[in-house]
């Protein structure tokens, strides 16, 4: 392994082979990403050298991954400090720090939803006062505003500790997938079918918009090219999660996902299963939003690399496409099962709400269910700390692969 002082030659600010970091969505599952990153830094710089530079020059985040991306970018000048702060944040998390979980607020919201669905068609005025979401994530906004230093982000970009930060969201108004990015130099915005990039000064609003789970958290009002658009979770309609990193100049991409294998759990098939609960349906819907696009994008990237490898060098140079090496880390255990084991740590009112939807940790003949849904919304320290431990173990278990990835030149 190269010494810490040799690392800047191969990675970090100003390198010729910039590495992009892609952090996908997953709600509370994003604590796993923190563990992986902590493990990777321990592999690359076990001595915590003061000369160690940020190995990820381009950082891209979506949904809860956007929060991790923003925190890492705001501390890009000292990645070890960034990880210490992220571990402390996720490791001491409580549901009430992310969304209001007291009985009074949940009951009031539930009654408003019931009234709108039951008699809203008779009372137009009632429809105009419809609730915007199932849960209110105002506490998360306050937490991010108190935790993240976006002025330091600007300094990191100007001083070369970081090349670019990209945060993705989905515009409900137009249906487009929006990538907000802030970069050191001028990067021309790109546009593809149903997706576009917008150069922006990243702030708390961008992180809240990117992490606003549909129906669960409220959309955020964003000003895009002089027009107001309501934006929600960036994982929706995200056809190519690695695309922003490539557009921003990454030649190698390190991806941290939050899905265990294919998350279908074929071993749990039953001969005569009961009708699926709302929690089971909701959990699969969220898995479709967060996990499936990454798997397809990785497969697509591998196939493109294989095709480009067949071209002669002189022909390859004339193509607009270029090979990009990727390194993907995903959980080695089912996060659904881990979440159900910590269900009782949720506040009673929130736990009651989710049990009404079909979430249960029961064992025996009446097996529990809804683990997929609760794995995204269980913002409790017992669960998030276990995710961090799992992430660190998964990252460090591939230490030799990690060293090789950062040392080798891109294809």
State the end-to-end CA separation: 21 Å
Count of discrete alpha- or pi-helical segments spanning 4 or more residues: 17
Helices and strands, in order, run as EHEHHHHHHEEEEHEEHEHHHEHHHHH
Radius of gyration: 22 Å
> What is the overall shape?
globular
> How many strand elements?
10
Task: Quote the beta fraction.
Answer: 5-15%
Low-confidence stretches: 1-11, 363-367
Quaternary structure state of the chains depicted: single chain
Structural class: alpha/beta
Q: Keyphrases for this structure?
A:
alpha/beta, disordered N terminus, 411 residues, 43% helix, single chain
Account of the protein in words:
With 411 residues, the protein is of the alpha/beta class. 43% of the residues lie in helices and 13% in strands. The chain contains 17 helices and 10 strands. It has helices spanning 31-44, 64-74, 79-91, 103-119, 124-127, 138-147, 150-159, 204-210, 243-247, 278-290, 292-309, 313-316, 335-341, 348-357, 371-377, 381-396, 399-407; strands spanning 19-23, 58-62, 164-171, 177-183, 191-192, 195-199, 220-224, 227-233, 252-256, 325-329. Strands 1, 2, 3, 4, 5, 6, 7, 8, 9 and 10 form a 10-stranded mixed sheet that branches. Helix 1 (31-44) packs parallel to helix 16. The radius of gyration is 22 Å and the shape is globular.
Summarize, please.
By secondary structure, this protein is an alpha/beta fold. The chain has 17 helices and 10 strands. The model is unreliable at 1-11 and 363-367 (pLDDT under 50).
């Amino acid at each position: 392994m190269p010494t810490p002082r040799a690392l800047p030659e191969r990675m970090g600010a100003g390198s010729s082979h910039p590495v992009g970091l892609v952090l996908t969505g997953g709600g509370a599952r994003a604590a796993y990403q923190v563990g992986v990153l902590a493990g990777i830094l321990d592999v690359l710089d076990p001595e915590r050298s003061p000369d160690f530079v940020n190995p990820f020059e381009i950082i891209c985040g979506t949904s809860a991954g956007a929060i991790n991306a923003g925190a890492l970018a705001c501390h890009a000048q000292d990645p070890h400090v960034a990880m210490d702060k992220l571990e402390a944040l996720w490791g001491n998390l409580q549901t009430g720090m992310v969304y209001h979980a007291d009985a009074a607020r949940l009951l009031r919201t539930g009654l408003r939803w019931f009234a709108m669905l039951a008699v809203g068609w008779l009372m137009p005025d009632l429809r105009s006062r419809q609730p915007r979401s199932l849960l209110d994530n105002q506490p998360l906004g306050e937490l991010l505003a108190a935790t993240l230093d976006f002025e330091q982000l600007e300094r990191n970009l100007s001083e070369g500790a970081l090349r670019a930060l990209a945060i993705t969201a989905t515009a409900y108004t137009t249906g487009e997938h929006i990538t907000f990015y802030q970069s050191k130099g001028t990067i021309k915005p790109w546009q593809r079918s149903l997706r576009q990039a917008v150069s922006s000064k990243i702030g708390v609003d961008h992180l809240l918009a990117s992490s606003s789970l549909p129906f669960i958290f409220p959309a955020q009002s964003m000003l895009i090219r002089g027009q107001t658009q309501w934006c929600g979770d960036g994982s929706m309609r995200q056809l190519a999660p690695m695309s922003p990193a490539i557009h921003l100049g990454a030649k190698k991409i390190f991806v941290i996902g939050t899905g265990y294998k294919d998350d279908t759990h074929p071993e749990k098939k039953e001969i005569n299963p009961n009708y699926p609960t709302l929690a089971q349906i909701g959990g699969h819907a969220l898995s479709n939003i967060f996990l499936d696009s990454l798997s397809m994008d990785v497969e697509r990237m591998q196939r493109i690399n294989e095709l480009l490898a067949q071209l002669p060098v002189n022909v390859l140079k004339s193509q607009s496409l270029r090979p990009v090496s990727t390194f993907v880390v995903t959980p080695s255990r089912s996060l659904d099962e881990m979440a159900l084991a910590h269900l009782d740590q949720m506040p009673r009112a929130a736990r009651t709400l989710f049990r009404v939807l079909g979430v249960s940790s029961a064992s025996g003949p009446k097996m529990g269910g809804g683990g997929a849904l609760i794995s995204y919304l269980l913002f409790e320290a017992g669960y998030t700390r276990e995710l961090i431990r799992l992430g660190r173990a998964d990252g460090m278990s591939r230490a030799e692969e990690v060293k090789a990835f950062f040392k080798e030149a891109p294809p």
